[in-house]
Amino acid sequence: MASAGSEFFGSLSDGCYVQLQLPSGELSCNLTTDDCYPGMRDGQQIRFSGEGDQEPGLEPGDIVIVLDEKEHNVFRRHGHDLSMTMDITLAESLCGFQRTIQTLDNRTLVISCIPGT
Q: What is the domain partition of the chain in residue ranges?
C-alpha cells in the first residue's frame, strides 16, 4: 500500500477538508468530513467508507487517515488542555504585567498579573 501525505484545509470546528497527495505528487482525491474536530488525539483515525479505489465488479475500499500530531512552537498538549511557558522578568513578577497571547483559533487573550500576587 502506498503511503500518501495529506493536508487539512478549513476550520476544524466546521469539519475539515482533506486533500490526499500521492508520493509522486499526483493529487489522488478530495474528501470532506464532519468527523474532524478540535481535540483529536495523535493516532486517531478518520474513516471515509467506500471512498477507496473503485473498479468494476469490486466493492470500493475505505480510506483511513491516521492523524500525526505535530509539536507546536508555543503550546504543549496535556490531554484536552493546552499550556504554554512564558518567561517574565523579576520586575514583572513584582510589579505586575499585561501581555497578549494569540490562540490557535486566532483569538487574542490578555494575560495580566496584579502586582504582589
A: 5-66, 75-113
Handedness of CA 108, 82, 33, 9 (dihedral sign): positive
Question: Residue 28: its pLDDT value, please?
Answer: 53
Q: pTM of the full predicted structure?
A: 0.55
What is the 3-state secondary structure of the chain? CCCCEEEEECCCECEEEEEEECCCCCEEEEEEECCCCCCCCCCCEEEECCCCCCCCCCCCCCEEEECCCCCCCCEEEECCEEEECCCCCHHHHHHCEEEEEECCCCCEEEEEECCCC
Q: pLDDT tens, 47-97?
A: 877 777 777 888 888 877 787 777 888 888 888 788 999 999 999 989 999
C-alpha cell belonging to residue 81:
488542555
Separation CA 115–CA 14 (nearest Å): 41
